[in-house]
Amino acid sequence: MEPYIQNNKLELLGKLAAMLSHEIRNPLSVLKLNLHYLRTYNEDVNQENIELIDTCQLALDRISNLVENILEFSRRPVDELEVLSFNEVIDQSLIILNPIIIRHSVCVTKEYEGNIAPLRLNRNKILQVILNLLTNAVEASAKGSKIIIRTKKQDENDSCFVKVEIQDFGVGISDKDKEKIFQEFYTNKKLGTGLGLSVCKKILQEFNAEICFESKLGYGTTFILKFPIDNLR
Asked: Domain 82-232 class?
């Protein structure tokens, strides 16, 4: 009975997501036009406000891409792939999340390895994964805390991987929750949907990538992503 109920939930969620996505498109278009006007035609905008507008445009583009992915999912059998630098994708994610990072007074430290091999991936889907993990890290962190993002190449059992680590020093995950966090609809957040990490895992599986984590309650959590280089180049 439980799988049947779960399938019904997923089917209903899909219909609701498609309906909401369709309704969201029109106000998104209005916002994009207004931001474009402010950025291009208003000579009185100072540099600080221009940077804020640019950040809003990046975030808006991200929302638009997510909406389009939902609406076109059923008729797009092949994802658009491009050669990506993981360091660059993470930098783009940090630009989008910068207002949230500032609001939470969290310091983000980047520890990038310079010779990371580029991978052939779908930019929007990988952005979705990184944004979700970074948002979780920020929300789990206390004010004045820090988050460390690492990228490096790793050789393991005759295979090469691009490894990405997102480490926070926040609340951590209890032992009883560790087995559940990738389950659909499971969340400890008051306003959470319980879909973020399960969606991340499914996206990563499309690219033969792995996700795991290390966590200790009260000391923080590190999420680890591993992308096989040979399979994606």
From this structure: alpha beta
pLDDT per 10-residue tile (average), the chain, 233 residues: 48 63 71 75 72 81 70 52 89 87 91 86 88 89 93 80 92 78 56 59 88 89 89 46
Q: Which of 91, 86, 93, 145 is nearest to 118 (CA)?
A: 86
Residue identified by tokens 């889907």 is 125
Contact 137, 147 (CB under 8 A): yes
Q: Residues 192, 218, 180, 12: what is their CA dihedral angle, to the nearest 10 degrees?
A: 0
CA–CA dist 224, 150 (Å, integer): 9
- Chain-centroid distance of CA 154 in Å reads 22
The answer to whether the 2-75 and 82-232 domains have the same CATH topology is: no
In this structure, whether the domain defined by 2-75 belongs to CATH 1.10.287 is answered with: yes
| Token pair belonging to 143 | 């004010």
With H, G, I as helix, E, B as strand and everything else as coil, classify residue 138: helix
CA 228 to CA 133: how far, in whole Å? 20
**Taking the domains of the chain in order of start, what are their residue ranges?**
2-75, 82-232
The pLDDT assigned to 160 comes to: 85
Amino acid 233: pLDDT: 44
- Of 108, 95, 88, which is closest to residue 167 (Cα–Cα)? 108
